[in-house]
Write a structure and sequence with these properties.
This protein has about 475 residues and is an all-alpha fold. The chain contains 18 helices and two strands. The protein has helices at about 20-40, 55-75, 80-100, 115-125, 150-155, 160-175, 200-220, 240-250, 260-270, 275-310, 315-325, 330-360, 365-370, 375-425, 435-440, 440-455, 465-475, 475-480; strands spanning about 175-180, 185-190. It has a two-stranded antiparallel sheet. Helix 2 (about 55-75) packs antiparallel against helix 10 (about 275-310) and helix 12 packs antiparallel against helix 13 (about 365-370). The radius of gyration is 41 Å and the shape is elongated. The model is unreliable at about 1-20 and about 135-140 (pLDDT under 50).
């Protein structure tokens, strides 16, 4: 037939719906999902330590060095070169605190300024619970065995803990004293008839009680004004908890075990031999140096690597800090664990040997605890907790990463299939055959429809290759 076919144009230009656009959208969505899966896979690397042999060697060397410092410079109370430095530091802080409270200095040049400052604080921050055992009610009749040497430890209000603060305010309100001795909580009543807690209302009195507690601790932390030599400071916060356990159990009517009593007696003996808050601060020095050295080793090594692997044009402070930052990463955590573990191994070995030697072949627990660096043990425990936490996180992340890896493989195969389908339906240029018909360019329109048909797998015997074949196909008989 010679008549031309008239077609209704559904859309024009880019408004014509194309299946290829949907395929492209599906590919982009799959790629975004792969990026998310890769973050899950890469998160496994952020949990796993990246330590080499040099890192482990440096960490162990730091632990050994600080262990030697602990043995020869910390030692035990009374034989500690670093302890003498710490004692002087506390004396200076007491004088500074006294000046802040109004102390003008010693009245004459012959007076010891530290003793003068302590005496000022003792007068300025009086409390009702400062019995020393020199009077009848001090504790001998009660079986408390209270003495000027031990009263700072046995008096709960002298303990630098939250429970010590509680009993300090309680004693100031009730004019009483609470002591721990022989595994018992003992209360002395009506012991401060001349004491008056300032404040016009309860909140004000509580605040004044807190200030009195804090000020009185400062007056005792470097010894007393009348004491000789080093003097008795305040209990170490760690060993003071042996008092707190007995006090809590006594208040709750819970039986106090022999272990509680024995630990309390051990802590009292340690305090009597000079193991107070000052000495515990001394023990923190090698532990702090250990952490500092490990972080320095980590940063210096990463800094050298950064400068050797980065050109001057690519360097930036932000990237450099990210590469050398010695905090919050599993590698520095592992190095600290090795360093503190090495330190504790040396410290415990030294304490054990000396405990056996001082006991004449029998283990001496007091000597062992005097030399045991509790701060180091605590810091190593924190490192072990971090290692356990990272191990659990790594196991969970490993399972998630394995699942994400399988999903990624499926999505990659899916994308490959979509790309093949995209090529199969790449009709962007051929769709313009509609406009070729509108403009009368029938030859071009026919060529494009043939191209689309071939792409979709139409066999050659069914293709309409020219206008004549098209006219023959659209004769009346075929249209019936």
């Amino acid at each position: 037939m010679d008549t031309e076919c008239k077609l209704v144009v559904v859309g024009q230009g880019s408004n014509i719906p194309q299946g290829n656009d949907r395929i492209e959208y599906a590919i982009e969505s799959a790629k975004l999902e792969i990026l998310s899966l890769e973050e899950t896979i890469n998160s496994l690397e952020n949990i796993k330590p990246d330590c080499d042999k040099i890192d482990y060697a440096l960490a162990a060397s730091s632990g050994c060095l600080c262990g030697i410092i602990d043995i020869f410079l910390v030692g035990k109370p009374g034989e500690s070169p670093l302890g003498n430095v710490t004692d002087k530091w506390f004396e200076k802080k007491v004088c500074i605190f006294a000046k802040l409270c109004g102390w003008k200095g010693p009245k004459n040049a012959t007076t010891n300024p530290v003793k003068s400052a302590i005496g000022f604080l003792e007068r300025h921050f009086k409390v009702p619970y400062d019995q020393t055992g020199t009077n009848v009610q001090g504790g001998y009749i009660l079986g408390l065995d209270l003495s000027p040497k031990s009263h700072h430890f046995k008096s709960l209000a002298h303990n630098p803990t939250l429970l010590g603060l509680f009993f300090s305010i309680l004693d100031q309100f009730t004019l009483s004293s609470h002591f721990v001795g022989n595994g018992q909580l003992i209360e002395l009543v009506n012991v401060g008839e001349t004491f008056e807690l300032k404040g016009s209302n309860v909140p004000a009195k509580i605040w004044c009680g807190f200030v009195n507690w804090l000020g009185h601790l400062h007056s005792d932390i470097a010894g007393s004004s009348g004491g000789k030599g080093r003097g008795m400071g305040i209990p170490s916060p760690i060993w003071a908890w042996t008092n707190n356990i007995i006090a809590i159990k006594a208040k709750l009517n819970i039986p106090i075990s022999d272990i509680n009593k024995n630990l309390n007696e051990l802590a009292t003996e340690l305090f009597n031999q000079g193991y107070d808050a000052r000495f515990q601060t001394t023990q923190a020095i090698p532990v702090f140096i250990n952490s500092l050295l490990v972080r320095m080793f980590y940063s210096v090594r990463r800094l050298l690597k950064y400068y050797s692997c980065t050109t001057p044009e690519e360097r930036s402070f932000k990237e450099m800090w990210t590469a050398i930052k010695p905090f919050s990463n599993p590698t520095i955590g592992r190095m600290l664990s090795v360093a503190h573990g090495t330190f504790c191994l040396i410290d415990v070995s030294d304490a054990t040997i000396r405990a056996v030697a001082s006991g004449g072949g029998t283990f001496n627990p007091v000597e062992f605890c005097l030399r045991l660096n509790v701060i180091g043990i605590g810091r190593f425990s924190v490192s072990l907790y971090g290692e356990a936490k990272r191990a659990i996180s790594y196991h969970k992340a490993e399972q998630d990463a394995l699942f994400a890896q399988n999903e990624k493989l499926i999505l990659e195969n899916y994308i490959e299939g979509l790309k093949a389908l995209q090529e199969y339906y790449d009709d962007a240029e051929d769709y313009t055959w509609i406009f070729d018909l509108q403009t009368g360019n029938y030859t071009s329109a026919l060529e494009k429809t043939v191209s689309m048909a071939i792409r979709r797998g139409v066999t050659k015997d069914k293709l309409l290759n020219n206008k004549t074949e098209g006219d023959n196909y659209f004769n009346h008989e075929n249209l019936k």
